Amino acid sequence: MKDQASWKMPLDEFYVYSPELDNYAELLLTENCLEDRGYDLPVPWQNTDYPQPEDFNAIGFRLFNLDLAKKWGYGFAPAADEESARLWQEFITETDPYFKDAEYQAVFDECTDEIRVDDPDFQQNFDGESYLAGLALQADGVVLQDAAVVEATARWRECLAPQVDFALPDDPRTGMPPAESERVWKSEGGEASAAEIRDAIADAECRESSGLTAVAYERNWEEQQKLVDENRDKLDRIRSEAVERKAKLLTIVAENAPAAP
């Protein structure tokens, strides 16, 4: 079922789990291996649902609309699970100095190699996701050259150009905001400035009034549906393998992760 607000697409059903789950499960096994050798790796609890923040959809596609522009300009929304995100950031910060120790790094690499010999899919199990991403890019490439999208982009540009003090990119879906906009906004402390929010709102309104968002969504849906129909057998295999892989990873996590705080 279509849902423009969340940019739901036909390929979405084949994205079964996040690659972060592979990384987390491998780190938990690495922690065990390091402890057996007298070393530490304090891998924290993580929310393995990997919920997306408000400005990303379920498969990690960045969203942009008027509501989001009013809240954060072009900036990122807060993490959906702030505790999980906080624990992970603390883990990264705490363990970074460990890898400046050559001896520790060597033992870590040995453990990683052993784990990947036992389960070669670790860090190599992304062929399916790469295939999905390739199909999505293929569809988007067609859409980018579609006459209706090109015309809507021209209307967007005509709408927004008089309202901002920076040059607009060729493709608003990937080029906004341009780097020079930071000079115009002069935001401080990581927060969106009033100028940024104003320009983001104008951008979102012009995407709507020009019809760009609507036509880009419809044409992307059509192109992805064609690719799904043409590649259904392979996509079904990718999904089936991913379901099996996810179950295995969740078992590893259940047996090795610390309890939720």
Summed up:
The chain has helices spanning 19-36, 66-72, 82-95, 102-118, 127-144, 147-160, 172-175, 181-185, 194-209, 212-230, 232-256. With 261 residues, the chain is mainly alpha-helical. It has one domain.
How does this structure look, described?
This protein is mostly helical and 261 residues long. It has one domain (4-256). It has eleven helices and no strands. The model has no long low-confidence stretch (mean pLDDT 93).
Distance between the termini: 37 Å
Question: Could you tell me the mean pLDDT?
Answer: 93
- The number of distinct β-strands equals 0
In quaternary terms, these chains amount to single chain
By helix and strand content, what is the structural category?
A: mainly alpha
Inertia-based shape: globular
Strand content: under 5%
What characterizes the major β-sheet? none
